[in-house]
Specification:
This protein is mostly beta strands and 115 residues long. The protein is built from no helices and eleven strands.
Length: 115
């Protein structure tokens, strides 16, 4: 079992920045990759950014150059630094952990980009 707890969401103006955190606990060694997904109202959940155990990263085209995923292995925490935020980035952001048998999800944190 893996437990994921997100934090750092909130209200930000367009052009602003936020940093999301995801703290993992439990069977940490079983995690192959961790990522951030988001789901806007009326839309499907989509992958935003991913970081593998080896440190490789991948991003959705819509966030490349603006978002950065990173991790602190000592703290078992993954971060999503979001810069130059746009109204279309408004969504619930979910932390995800991939293991051999499937996925674990956090409860999500709301990011609202609005003036």
């Amino acid at each position: 079992q893996v437990q994921l707890v997100e934090s750092g969401g909130g209200l930000v103006q367009p052009g602003g920045s936020l940093r999301l955190s995801c703290a993992a606990s439990g069977s940490i060694l079983s995690i192959n990759a961790m990522g951030w997904y988001r789901q806007a109202p009326g839309q499907e959940r989509e992958l935003v950014a991913l970081i593998t155990r080896g440190g490789s990263t991948d991003y959705a085209d819509s966030v490349k150059g603006r978002f950065t995923i990173s991790r602190d292995n000592a703290k078992n925490t993954v971060y999503l630094q979001m810069n130059s935020l746009k109204a279309e980035d408004t969504a619930v952001y979910y932390c995800n952990a991939r293991v051999v048998i499937g996925h674990y999800w956090g409860k999500g944190t709301l990011v609202t980009v609005s003036s």
